[in-house]
Amino acid sequence: MTARILITGAAGGLGTLLRPRLAEGDRVLRLLDIAEIPAAGDGENVELVQASVTDMAAMEAAMSEVDAVVHLGGHSLEQPWAQILDVNINGTHVVLEAARRQGVKRVLLASSNHAVGYVQRADGNADDYLFPKPDTYYGVSKVAMEALGSLYSDRYGMDVIAIRIGSCFEKPKDARMLSTWLSPDDAARLVEACIAAPNPGFRVVWGVSDNTRRWFSLDEAYALGYESKDDAEAFASEVDAPDPESLAQKYVGGAWCGPYFDTAV
Ligand code: 15L
Questions:
Q1: Residue 164's closest CA among 179, 151, 180, 150?
Q2: Which protein residue has the closest C-alpha to ligand 1 atom 10?
Q3: What is the pLDDT along the chain (265 residues), one digit of tens a residue?
Q4: Residues 118, 129, 138, 152: which is the catalytic one?
């Protein structure tokens, strides 16, 4: 079992869902965020670090005695370019470089479906390692994240796994998420598999549950040992029926391919 895991962006949505699910035995979760992180609960084996992922000195310090990093930090929605560049792209470089300097060999990167958001459903099932087709500056930052991960793996022999996350929430919120949903429990199972897989090198995997309406490959995730136990279909009656004319029916990125997201400068 991996003894100490550093989670960046630990106070965010995904970090909050993963925190209780990655707690295990003697394992220490070092939780890092620029925002305030909720204090340790009873018996919780956590260390709290309030810092920015863009702060090299702080990140190097945060890597001490760490066995694996789960990098969730950064903007999770579209933002103006300067912010995306600083926090998401530069921040990912800082995380990888700090890990390298401190001898942390394994880094999991929270990439996103928006790295390939303009891939059309008509093109067939979304395979692993789809060539980038970002739908936003945010999506571009996820492409850059994957490129940095590839570089650090090839150049320095690190194990870096980029997870193209679909939609990780407690429940699917709309018809699109009946395809893209990654249940929080499956997210934890996927992270555990990515942490435990022997010598993976650099990988790109889809982070979705085994949804009945899934059109994303899980081959590479399964090859790493992931086993999905959830299916968004269980919530199908709780969301509106899909609109056949919607962007969600056409593109991986759904509404992110529409004009609403074309506002960031
Ligand atoms: C993402 O990458 C976002 O961070 C998240 O907020 C969701 O919108 C998700 O993609 C999605 O596509 O559903």
A1: 180
A2: 167
A3: 569 999 999 999 999 999 999 999 999 999 999 999 999 999 999 999 999 999 999 999 999 999 999 999 999 999 999 999 999 999 999 999 999 999 999 999 999 999 999 999 888 889 999 999 999 999 999 999 999 999 999 999 999 999 999 999 999 999 999 999 999 999 999 999 999 999 999 999 999 999 999 999 999 999 999 999 999 999 999 999 989 999 999 999 999 999 866 665 5
A4: 138
Q: Is the whole model's pTM more than 0.95, yes or no?
A: yes
Tell me, what amino acid is at 156? Y
CA-closest residue to ligand 1 atom 2: 112
Among protein residues, the one with the nearest Cα to ligand 1's atom 7 is 167
ipTM of the complex: 0.98
d(CA 96, CA 99): 5
Cα(253) to ligand 1 centroid in Å equals: 9
Residue 194 contacts residue 182 (beta carbons within 8 Å): no
Coil, strand or helix at 67: coil
Atom of ligand 1 nearest to the CA of 254: 12
Which domains does the chain carry?
4-261 (3.40.50.720)
